[in-house]
Design brief:
GO molecular function, one term: hydrolase activity
Structural class: alpha/beta
Protein name: Dienelactone hydrolase
Strand content: 15-25%
Radius of gyration: 16 Å
Keywords: Hydrolase
Shape: globular
Largest sheet: 7 strands, mixed
Number of strands: 7
Number of helices: 8
Order of helices and strands: EEHEHHEHEHEHEHH
Organism: Apiospora arundinis
InterPro entries: AB_hydrolase_fold (IPR029058), Dienelactn_hydro (IPR002925)
Helix content: 25-40%
Strand order of the largest sheet: 1-3-2-4-5-6-7
Distance between the termini: 33 Å
């Protein structure tokens, strides 16, 4: 795993769930470092057993469908649960705020829901997901903890009809939720947005602020004053 933000857990610590590029991506580590600079002890576990997607998904021999099939909930949920347990039992964090991006966004939302044990002592206080991919209706309907989502209007994996479904499903839960839409933002903008393009830079920077504000307010289990 990669950890940042000091050597000791903060009361609310961040579990950072990466996109499919995993810990091999400098952008993922820089974003984790941003949570550390914001005052959160942050852990990014290796979700892919040392073999993430190549940074160039067009690399010879790489099959994205086969890769995702090999890293479904049956394989990924236990790794996320172990990382939550590590933050709480080994590092001593009181609460865990989960921030997930793309692939990791799905699991941030799963761990905010009864699908992965929310409300049954799994130690998670709130979740943030940026441009989550691969999520199912059942997973969103099961959300039971405060959940914030950042979406881009140019995200081919979350087109308008799918975004509307996400909002409708969240609105039928009893948990606080938020869904922000950023213009000019493609899939992956919150991690790999092109900061030389003003709209993408704004979306990337503001989505990070969105996550931090959400955690400040909700991750303690009750609104901060």
């Amino acid at each position: 795993m990669y950890y940042t933000g000091g050597d000791k857990a903060t009361d609310v610590s961040v579990l950072f769930l990466t996109d499919i590029y995993g810990l091999a991506s400098p952008e993922n580590k820089r974003l984790a470092d941003s949570f550390g600079r914001a005052g959160y002890f942050t852990v990014a576990p290796d979700l892919f057993n040392g073999s993430p997607s190549p940074l160039d998904m067009n690399a010879p021999g790489f099959n994205q469908t086969r890769f995702l099939d090999a890293h479904g909930p049956a394989e990924t949920d236990p790794l996320v649960a172990l990382a939550v347990q590590y933050l709480r039992d080994v590092r001593g964090a009181t609460r865990v705020a989960v921030a997930g991006y793309c692939f990791g966004g799905r699991y941030a939302l799963r761990f905010a829901g009864t699908t992965a044990g929310a409300g049954h002592g799994n130690g998670v206080g709130a979740a943030f997901a940026a441009h989550p991919s691969g999520w199912t209706d059942d997973e969103i309907a099961a959300v039971a903890l405060p959940a914030s989502v950042a979406l881009g209007d140019r995200d081919e994996l979350n087109p308008p009809d799918r975004r509307h479904q996400l909002e409708a499903l969240l609105s039928n839960t009893t948990a606080p939720w938020q869904a922000d839409l950023y213009s000019g933002a493609p899939h992956g903008f919150a991690v790999r947005g092109n900061v030389s393009v003003p709209q993408q830079r704004f979306a990337k920077e503001t989505a990070f602020v969105q996550a931090v504000r959400w955690f400040e307010f909700w991750a303690n289990g009750q609104p901060s004053r």
